[in-house]
Amino acid sequence: MKKVIGFVCIICMIALYSCSNQSSSLKESEKGKPVVMIFGDFKCSYCKKVEENVMSQLKKKYIDTNNVKFQYVNLAFLGKDSIIGSRAQHAVNHYAPKYSLQFQKSMFKQQQDEDKQWITEKLVDRQIDKLNISKEDKKAIKKDYKTNGSTSWKEAKKDQQIAKDNHIKQVPTAFVKGKKVEDPYHFSNYVELLENE
Fold first, then answer.
1. Of 2 and 173, more confident
2. DSSP E strand stretches across 11-154
3. How do the residues of the chain divide into helix, strand and coil, expressed in percent and rounded to 5?
4. Which of 2, 62, 70, 190 is least surrounded by CB atoms within 10 angstroms?
5. By three-state DSSP, how is residue 175 classified?
6. Which secondary-structure segment (H or E) carries 162?
7. What mean pLDDT comes out for the span 18-40?
8. Which domains does the chain possess?
9. Signal as a keyword (predicted)?
């Protein structure tokens, strides 16, 4: 009986340890800044609500002032075309990181019915062309997101793994300092976790 109890205790300790480590990468960056991580998909209409209701304020108060590390994790699971948008955002983030959120906002503005395949290379290229960056950067971004095995392809795959590792089943899902934002549609919920925890 003692062996069974000991075995159960060990299993419980392992489970608790893995649960506490599961979102450790969500808590703070290597520079000690709190992490705000939003899991979404450009085709998700609810994710667009987060973009419209939260992102401009979050950007102004926390991201632009360098007070948080922000990461948008694109699950790219609402259609075969979703992955195109995810790869493109990673390419923008790689070559012109200051324009990543502008590209994200632009993609959400283009949103159509999630059941349609509307994220095309042509549409994405138009959004890239709107960015105030050099022609060389635009060309590099377009090449990268369209090239199998490129940096953006690998990063898009990593996004899907991050979501899997953190058991993300729906979007939008947001975390602030490792804690899930229960209602991700209101900026005040992010502020509360950033300021009071």
1. 173
2. 35-40, 69-74
3. 60, 10, 30
4. 2
5. strand
6. helix 151-165
7. 68
8. 33-193 (3.40.30.10)
9. yes
Closest CA to 167 of 14, 47, 39, 29: 39
* Span of 21-35, 79-93, 132-146, 156-170 with lowest mean pLDDT: 21-35
Query: What is the C-alpha separation between 47 and 171, in angstroms, rounded?
Result: 7
Residues contacting residue 171 through CB under 8 Å, at least 6 positions apart: 39, 40, 41, 44, 46, 47, 75
Backbone angles phi, psi at 39, to 5 degrees: -95, 130
Q: What are the tokens at 155?
A: 């990063």
- DSSP track, 76-101: --SSTTHHHHHHHHHHHHHH-GGGHH
Q: Both tokens of residue 36?
A: 């705000």
Of 88, 108, 96, 97, residue with least CA distance to 153? 88
Q: Which segments within the chain are labelled E, that is strand?
A: 35-40, 69-74, 173-176, 179-180
- The strands making up 179-180's β-sheet, listed across from edge to edge, are 69-74, 35-40, 173-176, 179-180
Separation in Å, CA 101 to CA 7, 143, 169: 49, 20, 24
φ and ψ of 78, to 5 deg: -100, 30
Tell whether the model's pLDDT for residue 81 goes beyond 90: yes
pLDDT of residue 22: 39
